[in-house]
Amino acid sequence: MGSCLTCFKSPPNATVNNVASDGVVLGPETAITDPEATVNVLLVETDDLLAASPIRMTSLGSERKSGSFKKTIGLLNGNLNALPDGSSLPGKDLATQISDNDLNKLFEEYKDSQEDAILSEGIERLCCDLGYKPDDFAILVLAWRLDASQMCQFTKSEFIQGLQQMNAASIDDIKLRLEQIMEKLKTDSEDFKLLYRFTFRFGLEPGHRILSLDMAISLWRLVFTVHTPDILPRWLHFLEQHQNIRGVPKDTWNMFLNFVETCDITQYDDTEAWPSLFDDFVEYEQERLKLASKNPEAGLEGSEGGLVTAVAIGVQEDDNNNS
Q1: Where are the extended beta strands (E) located within the chain?
Q2: pLDDT at 196 over 90
Q3: What is the C-alpha end-to-end distance of the chain, expressed in Å?
Q4: For residue 118, what are the β-bridge partners?
């Protein structure tokens, strides 16, 4: 998404190891050609380890609590066209009734003058017409539904076929569909899982197989917009404090979804098959929590605890002023 996601771009001098940790050559994701078919694709990857059950976000302490992902009654199993009210977006029959002429005209409004694709400038104009900022969550969702192969670009086939799948032939149609899809993502963990997997591939630099650290941090913040795990601020703070991390491979990205479901710092078992980065994070957090227990204002910088401390200090100052 070009300057649409400029803040996610790696610095020019950033270097990232292109060798995947699992040694598997990453090819394009399987395209969805039949919008009526349920999404039950077998992905022979480490992301098979992602739990199929609804995601439960837990706190870092011993107290565990469930997240807000709930399966909506009546939703089709993984059907990308299913809506929050249990109905479905129009499928193949209705999608084919959309005028190719209308879709081509819409594409021409935003396409690059030299390339047969919508590039950075066109994507920025599209975002403006949709009423979103280029780095808004809605634009990530749009890229997902268009099955965009990379940032900064919507090819003609991606744009037209994606809008056919969405049954959208105008800006107003796209806005409506995005609102419906985002509402569904709040409650459907299976659809969120599909978006989450897509986000890794979408953020990769051409020819690379792991995300740069800066890109991974930005994308984690973005993809968890509709549901932020309790652990996320502390995880991102840990990553920001360890800029020597060479990057985030697909294994780590995918397994983080399992990690936020099951993580309990006080009960963490480092003998389980977690990525070593998770072990380092847990050790870092355990040390921070020990410091925090000795001094309530220590070890909370960069996490939601830091905000609590700041608020507490502010309240104390107000009390002193009033006394």
Answers
A1: 117-118, 154-155
A2: yes
A3: 54
A4: 154
